Amino acid sequence: MERKLDILQVGPTRYKGGVAIAIQQLVCGLARKGHSVTLIGNGGVDPRALADLGVDYIEAPLYNRPTELFKTARIMASVIRAKKPDIVHSHSRSASLTSILAGRMPDWFTFHNSFLTDKVGPLDFGPIRKYLSPLGREIFVLNEEAKSYLSRELSVDQNKITLNPNGVDLERYRPPSAAERETARKRFNILEGETVGLFVGRFHEQKRPEIIVQLAERARDAGLHDVKFLMVGEGPLESDTRQLVAAAELDDVVKLVGWMDPIEAYWAADLFLMPSLYEGLGLVAAEAVACGCPVLRTNSGGAEYTVEHGVSGYICDIDESSFISLAIELMSKPEALAAMRSQTRTWAERNLHSDGYIDRAINAYTASVRNKKNKVGEK
What we know:
By secondary structure, the chain is of the alpha/beta class. It has helices spanning 18-32, 47-52, 66-83, 93-101, 126-132, 144-154, 178-187, 210-221, 238-247, 263-268, 283-290, 320-331, 334-351, 354-378, and strands spanning 6-10, 36-41, 56-59, 87-90, 108-111, 138-141, 161-163, 195-200, 227-232, 254-256, 271-274, 295-298, 313-316. Strands 3-2-1-4-5-6-7 form a seven-stranded parallel β-sheet, sandwiched between helices. It has a six-stranded parallel β-sheet with strand order 10-9-8-11-12-13, sandwiched between helices. β6, α6 and β7 (161-163) form a beta-alpha-beta unit. The longest helix is centred in the last third of the chain and has 25 residues, at 354-378. The model has no long low-confidence stretch (mean pLDDT 92).
């Protein structure tokens, strides 16, 4: 019989991007499988919903300023003393640093991107970054590119890296009924016969929201007057994107709806659009596929784990001209996109179930606990 573990998860949960969703999905999945789970996050969760699953949630800053790092480290040290967790799992470098300050190197770290981006501190660059990057004893990555990067740039032993792409809750993210799809399209004022391209994500340079505006201009110039675009999300480029839409006189073509639960947007759309420069996986693409919405995404990290080219969507080069040209071609053939919806969901059922992601994590945790016991026994 599988031993039930006491697991402490630490990571950023406030912004509803892929990292926060993946953390909560893992925490809830572990709890449903009978493990004891504590989550230290920085907001953006429903504590009562977690409590209903038996998850202890503790809110802490989880930022890089020294006062906040030490404050959270004290909170974490208290949790570690009280619970004596079998596993500490970190989901950001600042969370790992906090854990180390609390006296416990994380047993596992999930690298949610394909390369390091934001710096932890003023000394975090060049060779210093290589030796001081706080990760964990072992590391989960979401794609092979990340595994190669960690080995090449940070000299991480490949034997310490485990590939574990995120999955999707296939009960929540499912194809709509005909009535649900009609209701969703009415919510966004989509008319009969219109083909909708959907962007969901942070308005950030990484996600390149401006390409959706360029695509809308090209579609208009190509005479595709029944093509419309929805953009769900928020972020530093949201205002700039709105200005681009207005300047191009595309207010009736491109609708920015702010942040919302995207499930109805997936149901309303005909093609999901992800023009990202880089990704760890691109969880929103997996969610769209699970809802039966074909995806067009760049080959920006983890693409092969969310899309099978020509089956559940399409993968193209990262340059914007390739993305826009293929998007125009696909959106000019709405009947072909409609015909893909069923096979897109079928592919998701074979490849994207969250149980695989959660079970791989449990297996890795169990192996870590066993290895620690063996090392203690050898002394």
